[in-house]
Design a protein that fits this description.
The chain is mainly alpha-helical. It has one domain (about 5-65): 434 Repressor (Amino-terminal Domain) (Orthogonal Bundle). The chain is about 65% helix and about 0% strand. α2 crosses α3 (about 30-35). The radius of gyration is 12 Å and the shape is globular. The relative contact order is 0.20.
Length: about 70
């Protein structure tokens, strides 16, 4: 799973703007766009993002774990 792409998808599903998301995350829009490019992410940051977007990204990783997919 490319976490940056997935965060961007969920943000769009929630109809949240990059400005609003960046504000809640406490970073600039530039850094938010850089975040969307990340294949991996710090767990504490992912926890904050999960709360902001009300989405359990950890459950998606759990599904990948049980499906036998490997991060590269």
């Amino acid at each position: 799973m490319h976490i940056g792409n997935r965060i961007k998808e969920v943000m769009k599903e929630r109809k949240m703007s990059v400005v609003a998301f960046s504000r809640q995350l406490g970073c600039s829009r530039t850094n938010t766009y850089k975040l969307f490019e990340h294949y991996s992410i710090d767990t504490m940051q992912l926890l904050r993002i999960s709360r902001i977007l009300n989405h359990d990204f950890f459950a998606e990783y759990q599904l990948e774990l049980h499906a036998g997919h490997h991060a590269e």
